[in-house]
Amino acid sequence: MRRILSLLAVLTAIAALAAPVAAQQIDVDLELVLAADGSGSIDDGELSLQRDGYADAIADPEILKLIQGGLTGRIAVAYVEWGGPFSQHTIVDWTVIDGPESAAAFGAALRAAPRQAVGYNSISNAIDYSVGLTETNEYKGLRRIIDISADGPNIGGRSIQAARDDAIAKGFTINALLVLHREGSLPTRSPEQLVAHYERDVIGGMGAFVMTVDENRTFAEAVRAKMILEVARGLGLEDQL
Questions:
Q1: pTM
Q2: Taking the CB of residue 188, how many other CB atoms lie within 10 A of it?
Q3: How many CB atoms lie within 10 A of CB 33?
Q4: 192, 173, 186, 183: which is closest to 236 by C-alpha?
Q5: Cα–Cα distance, 147 to 60 (Å, whole number)
Q6: 17-26, 41-50, 95-104, 169-178: which range is least confident on average?
Q7: Is residue 1 part of a domain?
Q8: Which of 64, 120, 150, 162 is buried deepest, with most CB atoms within 10 A?
């Protein structure tokens, strides 16, 4: 009997050693997906301008100061570009931003990555992709935000309202940067209708907002302003603005 008990103890110990160890999640103040329009409506120059705007914003001293003022002093960021219903691509995978060096590395990776998205404007599938990307990462944030930037309405994929509502039910906030005017071009759609579409159908969750790029504000200026507000609200530091 004693031998049997000893054998059982050995087998139990071996099983415990062989069992997979659950990955320990890394605490961050915010999980942020920057989901940018890479569709056919964006030419290569505009795509480069978008990436430069986000790379510069993430390294902006005011934004880094906000990040470092959070409980953990760091956030996790991923950059996605999307096009049609079957074209969503992680351009820069999850990166912890906690100071100038990590921000600069993120920006360098973003600028260097090849273009991948094709097709047109499935914002709904971009939201679904961003939710899945967040739910399978190794981070545990106090807030989870999806930041959609685009220049047109949802086209294709599943219902935009269903995608938005499902994300909100999982605790996400969806914000939007709506490009109504690109430098060197004239507006081609009704600004009022697009803003109403985004406010009604795209954004949602705690503190959600739409910010616009128009003839009075460049893309780089709008990205910086949006990220300052986004990070401040995400970290509960809006009173510091």
A1: 0.88
A2: 11
A3: 27
A4: 173
A5: 18
A6: 17-26
A7: no
A8: 150
